[in-house]
Amino acid sequence: MPSETNFELITTVLATADAFLREGPRLFKPFGLTSAQYNVLNVLAESAAPGGLSQRELSDELVVDRSNVTGLLDRMEKAGWVRRDDDPADRRIYRVRLTNEGRKLWENIAPRYEAVVTQITHGLTERQARDTLAVLSRLKSASSQWKTPA
After folding, report:
1. Max CA-CA distance within the chain?
2. Is 40 within the bounds of a domain?
3. Domain assignment present for 140
4. Which of 25, 84, 94, 145 has the lowest CB atom count within 10 Å?
């Protein structure tokens, strides 16, 4: 039987995620962005894939459903931040890339995001951060592997 601490751990992880989602607009809204849109810009800007990412690769990296990525990219393409090009090897696939405008937007907001991350994590040692990452990674993996109780 799980301990009370385990229940508190999961509750705190969910509350922390909710707090981040609730507070994200303070940083992103002045730039006309949502947190999800920033995540797309960030993944594309940090990607080493020279031809961009497929929508599937992008949804896997963002850990969101592909159907959600389509609408998100539609809005971002309309804003001029990303573009979707046909994949030369597979006509069923689009490759998603940042536009120059999208890259400039990311370059403007990324340092501000990094500053907020620094504020939030201030006081954590490198070891505490690594240990927390290990625990969260394990919880993330286990969250998709549980079985319905009998």
Report:
1. 54
2. yes
3. no
4. 145
Mean pLDDT across 21-46: 93
Q: Which domain holds residue 92?
A: 22-135
pLDDT digits (tens, 9 = 90+) for 123-134: 999 999 999 999
Q: Taking Cα atoms as reference points, which of 24, 42, 38 lies closest to residue 120?
A: 24
Q: Tokens 């949804």: give the residue.
A: 59
Number of structural domains in the chain: 1
Report the CATH number that the domain containing residue 40 is assigned in CATH: 1.10.10.10
In a domain, 56, yes or no: yes
DSSP 53: E
Q: Compute the C-alpha angle 37/110/100, nearest 5°.
A: 70
User: Can you give the pTM of this predicted structure?
Assistant: 0.84
Q: Is 102 exposed, middle or buried (0-12, 13-18, 19+ CB in 10 A)?
A: buried
User: What's the 3-state SS for 81-96?
Assistant: CEEEEEECCEEEEEEE
Cα 52 to Cα 17, 33, 68, 146: the distances in Å are 28, 21, 19, 34
pLDDT of residue 1: 59
Q: Which residue bears the tokens 């009370």?
A: 4
pLDDT at 51: 84
* pLDDT tens string 70-95: 899 999 999 999 999 988 888 888 89
